[in-house]
């Protein structure tokens, strides 16, 4: 495709896609695939066809957005949802909860929401779930509700025994769960999206913002806020919390929930120039990714307990990591910082700890210090996806678009080594 940016601009305007988030090679392959499928003589001919065909425009979008999702992904989020949902029902007895999954892909997320709430004891009449996605093909698969093994990952999978029936084609979802979910096609950039719908108590929009440039992120955030009740909660992806913290949101205080509410004491940053200080709370996931082991260069005994904590610093690395997570999730930023320092003294440099130090500095408004910690994390682990994503956000806010895009490309490659995981 070379220097031909027509298709990049088309995808940016239609679905808000930032090419750096998925890499230009993916878009080039998609354009070449569709050009060949339509027997276009060259790219000019295909561009002309694209402009005059709504069906081909959708086909190109489908070729670019290759969704990958599975049931009960980020299980802590669903546990947190059940907890706050029960509290909300107790506050408003007789008023059914409204929940939105956007984008809902092939249905795993909205159906997971329904299964989790039913398993938590909620009655069917106490909640409803809306699932919206830009892809008619994905909505069709979600409506069919038959899933293969790839949709079931991790353990335990006991929910599959409760809510699915094995068939020759895969696992068929129980009609009771399907009845809780209403599916429809929609584009989050469409001004008429969900027109006439009441605001939702809880909105799930996970791993979407990371695919947009900063102006589009802010535009989409306003859409999400519009469709979330004033006292509602927004569930996002692990790498998106830093952005929300700067846009006037705060964590709900449940570890690894990735859920945010409006922070009426905060002032959102009006322009993407310099990140404004946010509340000293950890906005995103803290525990290490499954399978990621700390990188250690030496081992020593811890020297002293963390100041101002209610218990001594654990002597083992896992205990220290868990303590950092607990302190940060409780909003004890200074104590979390001290726990990080204690870990580094006793166990040596670690990419995850430097990443946490970056987050603590980031949400505290210490931008340059945050950059330094993120870079230390990447020095030890060049493909640390979260450090890449957050450092890219900071560079974008400072106007270093080229540097941010290089980092976004690295983050996209590390997060999706083989299959492009793109929840639009």
Characterization of this structure:
The longest helix has 17 residues, at 75-91. The model is unreliable at 269-314 and 415-424 (pLDDT under 50). The protein has 424 residues and is of the alpha/beta class. 47% of the residues lie in helices and 11% in strands. It has a seven-stranded mixed sheet. A three-stranded antiparallel sheet has the order 3-5-4. The chain has helices at residues 6-15, 19-22, 24-37, 43-52, 54-64, 75-91, 108-119, 136-144, 158-163, 175-179, 214-226, 241-246, 317-329, 333-347, 351-363, 367-380, 385-397, 401-415, and strands spanning 97-101, 127-133, 146-147, 164-167, 170-173, 181-185, 200-204, 228-235, 249-251, 259-262. A hairpin with a 2-residue loop joins strand 4 (164-167) and strand 5. The chain has three domains: 6-64, no CATH class; 75-262, Vaccinia Virus protein VP39 (Rossmann fold), CATH 3.40.50.150; 317-415, Tetratricopeptide repeat domain (Serine Threonine Protein Phosphatase 5, Tetratricopeptide repeat, Alpha Horseshoe).
Characteristics:
424 residues; alpha/beta; Rossmann fold; Serine Threonine Protein Phosphatase 5, Tetratricopeptide repeat; 3 domains; seven-stranded mixed beta sheet; three-stranded antiparallel beta sheet; 18 helices; 11% strand; globular; disordered C terminus
Task: Tell me briefly what this model is.
This protein is α/β, with parallel strands linked by helices and 424 residues long.
What is the topology?
Elements (H helix, E strand, L loop, with lengths): L5 H10 L3 H4 L1 H14 L5 H10 L1 H11 L10 H17 L5 E5 L6 H12 L7 E7 L2 H9 L1 E2 L10 H6 E4 L2 E4 L1 H5 L1 E5 L14 E5 L9 H13 L1 E8 L5 H6 L2 E3 L7 E4 L54 H13 L3 H15 L3 H13 L3 H14 L4 H13 L3 H15 L9
Helix pairs in contact: 3-5, 6-7, 13-14, 14-15, 15-16, 16-17, 17-18
């Amino acid at each position: 495709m070379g220097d031909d940016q027509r298709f990049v601009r088309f995808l940016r305007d239609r679905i808000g896609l930032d090419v750096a988030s998925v890499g230009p090679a993916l878009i080039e392959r998609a354009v070449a695939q569709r050009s060949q499928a339509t027997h276009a003589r060259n790219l000019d001919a295909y561009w002309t066809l694209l402009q005059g065909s709504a069906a081909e425009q959708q086909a190109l979008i489908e070729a670019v957005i290759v969704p990958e999702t599975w049931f009960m992904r980020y299980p802590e989020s669903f546990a947190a949802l059940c907890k706050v949902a029960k509290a909300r029902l107790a506050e408003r007895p007789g008023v059914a909860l409204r929940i939105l999954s956007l984008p809902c892909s092939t249905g795993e997320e909205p159906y997971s929401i329904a299964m989790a709430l039913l398993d938590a004891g909620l009655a069917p009449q106490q909640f409803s779930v809306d699932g919206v996605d830009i892809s008619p093909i994905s909505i069709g698969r979600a409506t069919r509700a038959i899933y293969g093994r790839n949709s079931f990952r991790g353990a335990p999978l006991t929910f599959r025994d409760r809510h699915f029936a094995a068939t020759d084609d895969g696992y068929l979802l129980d009609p009771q769960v399907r009845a809780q979910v209403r599916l429809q096609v929609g584009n989050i950039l469409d001004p008429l999206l969900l027109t006439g719908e009441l605001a939702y108590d809880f909105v799930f929009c996970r791993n979407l913002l990371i695919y947009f440039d900063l102006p589009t992120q802010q535009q989409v955030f306003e859409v999400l806020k519009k469709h979330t009740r004033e006292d509602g909660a927004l569930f996002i992806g692990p790498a998106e919390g830093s952005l929300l913290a700067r846009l006037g949101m705060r964590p709900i205080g449940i570890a690894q929930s990735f859920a945010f509410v409006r922070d009426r004491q905060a002032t959102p940053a009006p322009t993407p120039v310099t990140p404004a200080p946010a509340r000293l709370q950890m906005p995103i996931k803290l525990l290490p990714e499954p399978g990621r082991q700390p990188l250690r260069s030496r081992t020593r005994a811890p020297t002293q307990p963390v100041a101002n904590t209610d218990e001594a610093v654990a002597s083992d690395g896992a205990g220290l990591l868990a303590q950092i997570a607990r302190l940060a999730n409780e909003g004890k930023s200074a104590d979390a910082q001290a726990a990080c320092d204690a870990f580094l003294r006793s166990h040596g440099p670690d990419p995850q700890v430097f990443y946490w130090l970056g987050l603590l500095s980031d949400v505290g408004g210490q931008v340059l210090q945050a950059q330094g910690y993120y870079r230390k994390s990447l020095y030890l682990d060049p493909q640390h996806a979260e450090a890449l994503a957050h450092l890219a956000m900071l560079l974008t806010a400072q106007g270093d678009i080229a540097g941010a895009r290089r980092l976004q490309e690295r983050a996209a490659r590390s997060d999706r080594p083989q299959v492009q995981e793109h929840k639009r």
